Amino acid sequence: MSAVGAVFLVAVLLIVLALVYFLVSTIVALRRITAGLDEVIAGVGEIVEKSAPVNDVVTAINEQLDAGVDLLEGLLVKKAGMSDAMGLIEGAYPGAAAAGLRNFPESTDVEAPRIGEIYTRGTLSLARLGREAPIAALSPQGAVLRNVEGGSLAARELYPDVRHTSPENLPRSPAIGVDAPDQYERRDDIGAPRKRLPARRP
Amino acid sequence: MLWLGAIVLLVVIVPVVVYLLNGVLQAARSIVPAVEGIAAVAAAGSKDLDAAALLLTTQDQVTQTVAGLANYGGSLDVILDDAEPAR
């Protein structure tokens, strides 16, 4: 064999060795990728399988909740009137009245009265109704919130006074008016001269 | 001439072949950690969705709650007077 032939042979041999080494290494890497992708496919398959009924269930829950919202809004407006309803909502959740009621777009135009601070009896009645609701018995947090046979003690304990201890002198009801310690917003038309209606034509 | 071809084959062709094959190998190896990471995330996501079955319990609870609410609202509708119409 000539020297040139030997050089050719060495070069070809080096090329073949490089091809073998790198291609085998690439094959090993691709096999690991395939194994990893198999795990990915299995995981994604589980995700798809587990999340398949979620849409239907959530849609059904939303429909139920929508029905509950419609019921509560309608009942509240029917029984309390639009103005007092917005006042109750504002008293229970400050700032919520601005969002209005979903089924009553005109509710956003109502100026919510401060029912939670002024109408104590109404708030008490609301608290009692909430504690006596049969839904409270289904609360997963524990027992019934209020003992139905135990009178209104649980409702009275909601207030920061001492009524449930039966003291000799009860604190006075909230004072309203110009001498009240807490002054609330006044309507501009209160105290102003009455509007004169146009005279009727004979 | 044969010598020139042999030298070119040994000095130019062999390094180019090695360089290109090494590039392919590095690219393939760089994919492996990414795929393993994706597999781990997919497995974790699948495990997180194990709680999705509890949605059925939530749905049942919501149904019972709204049913109780409807009963309660119906009773209130009977017990309480309607608000006076706005003047």
Q: What does the model show?
A:
The complex is a heterodimer of chains A (202) and B (87). Chain A is mainly α. Among the domains of chain A are: 1-52; 55-118, no CATH class. Helix content of chain A is 56%, strand content 0%. Chain A has six helices and no strands. Chain A has helices at 3-51, 54-92, 115-118, 120-132, 134-137, 153-156. With 87 residues, chain B is mainly alpha-helical. Chain B has one domain (2-79). Helix content of chain B is 84%, strand content 0%. Chain B has helices spanning 2-48, 54-79. Chain B is rod-shaped and about 115 Å long.
Task: For this entry, give a set of tags.
heterodimer, A: about 200 residues, 6 helices, B: about 90 residues, mainly alpha
Secondary structure blueprint with pairings:
The complex is a heterodimer of chains A (202) and B (87).
Chain A: H1 3-51, H2 54-92, H3 115-118, H4 120-132, H5 134-137, H6 153-156
Chain B: H1 2-48, H2 54-79
Mean pLDDT of chain A: 76
Q: How large, in whole angstroms, is the Cα Rg of chain B?
A: 37 Å
Number of helices of chain B: 2
Low-confidence stretches of chain A: 131-146
Strand content of chain B: under 5%
- Tally the helices of chain A: what do you get? 6
User: Distance between termini of chain B?
Assistant: 113 Å
Summarize this structure briefly.
By secondary structure, chain A is mainly alpha-helical. In chain A, 56% of the residues lie in helices and 0% in strands.
